[in-house]
Amino acid sequence: MTVTRLGPEDFAAHLPALAGLLVDAVAGGASVGFLAGFDEAAATAWWRARAAAVADGSLAVWIATGPAGVTGTVSLAYAEKPNARHRAEVVKLAVRRDARGRGVGRRLLAAAEAAAAASGITLLLLDTETASAAERLYETAGWQRYGIVPDYAAGPSGELKDCSFFFKKLG
Question: Is the full-model pTM beyond 0.85?
Answer without folding.
Answer: yes
